């Protein structure tokens, strides 16, 4: 899955209007290097951790207690972020009017129910 999230935690962590991320099956992802995770409680009640590189501070990955088998990667940390093809937008209820949303993408006021 790939999409944009406008929740307040993503706004705070990125310092921007939203985060852009891709979710992979955890077993398909190999991480190298040290990430420092900052944990918050999402509106859903899930514990969400956003991991930044311990060396440069770049936001790299996220994890959620609600999706224990998924590894989420922040698109801006990829070597080739141009390959990102967003499929949806979540937490539009928190979006700022100045932050553009692709009118062609499906939008959800909050996090829709997903199969993990
Ligand atoms: Zn978010």
List keywords for this structure.
seven-stranded mixed sheet; glutathione-dependent formaldehyde- activating enzyme (gfa); binds zinc ion; mainly beta; 116 residues; globular; 6% helix
Describe this entry's structure for a reader.
- The N and C termini lie close together (11 Å).
- A seven-stranded mixed sheet has the order 3-4-5-6-2-1-7.
- It has one domain (2-94): glutathione-dependent formaldehyde- activating enzyme (gfa) (Alpha-Beta Complex).
- A hairpin with a 5-residue loop joins strand 5 (59-64) and strand 6.
- The radius of gyration is 14 Å and the shape is globular.
- The chain is built from one helix and seven strands, in the order βαββββββ.
- It has 116 residues and is mostly beta strands.
- The model has no long low-confidence stretch (mean pLDDT 93).
- The longest helix has 7 residues, at 8-14.
- Bound molecules: zinc ion (ZN).
- Zinc ion is lined by residues 5, 7, 9-10, 19, 91.
- Intertermini distance: 11 Å
Bound molecules: zinc ion
The total count of helices amounts to 1
| Order of strands in the sheet with most strands | 3-4-5-6-2-1-7
Radius of gyration: 14 Å
CATH superfamily name? glutathione-dependent formaldehyde- activating enzyme (gfa)
Structural class, from helix and strand content? mainly beta
Domain count: the total is 1
- Sheet having the most strands: 7 strands, mixed
How many beta-strand elements?
A: 7
How would you summarize the topology of this molecule?
Layout: E1 2-5, H1 8-14, E2 19-25, E3 35-41, E4 47-53, E5 59-64, E6 70-74, E7 88-90
Parallel strand pairs: 1-7
Antiparallel strand pairs: 1-2, 2-6, 3-4, 4-5, 5-6
